[in-house]
């Protein structure tokens, strides 16, 4: 339900909401007058119902920042909700991926927790106690201690797994993990913050009864935030560093979905703080060619702790008075504008689709002459011919892209084969002997808790192939704008409607053309959105293929123990890379090309099948079927469409 009387709703946002509501009321009035027993009527009713239930992926903004940088306070200030999220100022910090979005259904504060399964947690416990048994004074040991004491309290790390199984907490955890999700819903914001704290925060100062090790991710839904977050999700991305592949995979997948990134840093350390910048540098591929990030913003917090004049002099910053105290309103405006733009796009699409469906209904209403059948057959034949021609041209353009991409990949394979062994040797860095086993156990990747050590053998092996395709990949799959060669632009060029006024003397065919053109436009827009998701899989398939090819080697290396294990693991990795390099990199190339070809086939199949269905629906009907006169409703939608073009 749209809350048009919402005091937080600005005039433009409310105007779009009112237009959407009016369009839906028109759709409902038309649907209520259609007969459910008639096949064509049922098709119309189905299309109208689908319009009302459309769902789009929300825009995701990723938020980086280490513990104590003020992320919780920043979010609370932006959303106008004091103490919305539990603060990490007292030695605690966010431990899991936390999403914040609007609650559009009621006035409660809701947290949806995605939990590890019993099997996943049992495996995690085995890994924790294996690390603890080695009694090493390194980061892996610290992480294991932190996890087990977070749940069981002080000295839990000194007990055996069998001893912990006798603890009442063990049975409580098993019961807790008997479901995959847990939901918390309360009306009071302070109570809500207290209730969720133990699931998303870690605290070394008061161990015990912190459940974050059991949680994969948390989605928090906030009421009264439609204007800012109706179509946006804010994602707090903590450091990885706990060597849990499930959390790491979720972290990376969330990063790839970010359309924007905010780096939150204490103003005193904004320039020198290496943590968020280091992680971004390492993940630039997940944000760019392998993702959809359009902007990166640095947000300085705790500005009240400094003397502005002294800070400006010390950092040699050019002072611009208009920047004073405008940060929070500016961020709110950014969210508001993004939200309104998405809402405007959704509203415009809905009105245009409604016009198309009503044009089809009106074409049947006007079909009173049996001679029209002959005209329809001629129009169908012409559109079918146009469809074949357009598909052939699209196929040719895709084949050109395929050929150019193959050349880039071939050069990348050649370079990778020559340099991969050296790349494997060069991954040895500070403290490597302490974490090599963890890297192997984690499928070739290790991220330290504080982000200061990032080791990823798979990324290192994929590096040269990525370097050779990056420039061309950004041409065919740009994050924003046009390049003249992008897949999205090839889809835009496709059309079976040759002219907006192909049938000026026939009102019936004019309405049919409007319907088909609307269907084609909506279909192309949907396919272009799908391309954004598919291109991420295409790009990441290089590294994924390498991970799969190296997986058995990682397992074998992780199992090596005893004297000289460090050297044995290194030799095993280097030997394996050298032995499988030709096959591995060529498989990666083949996988990229296969996924691109699958994308082409999916696009062509969707265009052909959906447009043929629309043509059949609109042009194969006889004059025996009668529908209501919707000329008045079409005029209403035209006026709504004009309002949206202002």
Describe this protein's structure.
The chain is globular, with a radius of gyration of 29 Å. The protein starts with 10 loop residues before the first helix and ends with a helix. The longest helix is centred in the middle third of the chain and has 55 residues, at 372-426. It has helices at 11-32, 39-52, 71-79, 118-134, 139-152, 161-165, 168-176, 189-200, 226-229, 245-257, 275-282, 284-287, 308-315, 327-366, 372-426, 432-441, 457-476, 487-493, 507-558, 565-619, 631-644, and strands spanning 59-64, 92-94, 97-102, 109-115, 181-186, 201-203, 215-222, 232-236, 258-266, 295-301, 445-447, 454-456. Mean pLDDT is 84; it is low at 1-5 and 307-324. It has 2 domains: 59-117 and 180-325, Rossmann fold; 369-622, no CATH class. It is 61% helix and 10% strand. It has 21 helices and 12 strands. Strands 5-4-7-3-8-1-9-10 form an 8-stranded mixed beta sheet, sandwiched between helices. Strands 2-6 form a two-stranded antiparallel ribbon. Strands 11-12 form a two-stranded antiparallel sheet. With 646 residues, it is an alpha/beta fold. One of its GO terms (molecular function) is GTPase activity. This is Dynamin N-terminal domain-containing protein. It comes from Culter alburnus (Topmouth culter). Residues 61-274 form the Dynamin N-terminal domain.
